[in-house]
């Protein structure tokens, strides 16, 4: 899919707004931001190195890892933008992840925007959309044992720790959270 087709297609998908934030489907124009976010020490520590080391690689990541689910299900990864100044703060979304039953709610923010309530605000909106717009009946989440900030946010969102799990082709045990309607 070329970039013009991509931008036209994205216009057909839902964008969300909160008091301070705009959440819109991640697109090629977000490639520099995606490159930055995927290479933060926190992303690499808690989510893993995606080996995205250039703008072109970021566009490929968006094209192969984000767009297909958005086109298939109508939801996916959203770039979180502060309305007051247009700053891209992080990402938040709903993911149909291999090896997990239920739809995974996930989030990642640049460190300088941590502790200001942005992740909770964005994730609350995505959670609301999951249940009210997309008809999802069960949200799940995974996090590493040492990612205490993620664990606190998941619990604040109403998800409950259930058990330890391993994703396919990964040996790391992850904490599994869930919330059903």
How would you describe what is shown here?
- This protein is 36% helix and 26% strand.
- It has a domain at 13-136: Gcn5-related N-acetyltransferase (GNAT) (Aminopeptidase).
- The N and C termini lie far apart (36 Å).
- The protein has helices spanning 3-10, 31-38, 41-46, 55-73, 118-132, 148-156, and strands spanning 16-17, 21-25, 77-82, 88-95, 103-109, 138-143, 160-165, 174-180.
Radius of gyration: 15 Å
The portion of residues assigned to helices is: 25-40%
Taken as a percent bin, the fraction of beta residues is 25-35%
* Quaternary state of the chains: single chain
Neighbour order of strands in the largest sheet: 1-2-3-4-5-6-8-7
Pfam family, one: Acetyltransf_3
InterPro entries: Acyl_CoA_acyltransferase (IPR016181), GNAT_dom (IPR000182), N-acetyltransferase (IPR051531)
GO molecular function: acyltransferase activity, transferring groups other than amino-acyl groups
Keywords: Transferase
Features:
alpha+beta, globular, Aminopeptidase, 181 residues, 8 strands, eight-stranded mixed sheet
Outline of the structure:
Helices cover 36% and strands 26% of the residues.
Layout of SSEs?
Blueprint (H helix, E strand, L loop, with lengths): L2 H8 L5 E2 L3 E5 L5 H8 L2 H6 L8 H19 L3 E6 L5 E8 L7 E7 L8 H15 L5 E6 L4 H9 L3 E6 L8 E7 L1
């Amino acid at each position: 899919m070329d970039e013009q087709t991509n931008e036209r297609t994205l216009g057909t998908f839902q964008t969300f707004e909160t008091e301070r934030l705009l959440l819109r489907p991640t697109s090629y124009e977000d490639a520099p931001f995606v490159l930055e976010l995927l290479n933060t020490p926190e992303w690499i520590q808690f989510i893993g190195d995606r080996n995205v080391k250039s703008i072109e690689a970021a566009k490929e990541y968006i094209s192969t890892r984000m767009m297909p689910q958005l086109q298939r299900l109508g939801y996916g990864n959203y770039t979180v933008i502060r309305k007051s100044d247009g700053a891209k703060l992080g990402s938040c979304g709903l993911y149909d992840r291999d090896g997990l039953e239920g739809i995974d709610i996930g989030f990642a923010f640049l460190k300088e925007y941590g502790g200001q309530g942005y992740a909770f605000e964005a994730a609350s909106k995505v959670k609301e959309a999951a249940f009210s717009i997309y008809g999802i009946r069960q949200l799940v989440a995974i996090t590493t044992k040492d990612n205490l900030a993620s664990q606190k946010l998941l619990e604040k969102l109403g998800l409950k720790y259930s058990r330890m799990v391993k994703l396919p082709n990964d040996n790391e045990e992850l904490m599994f959270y869930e919330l059903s309607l």
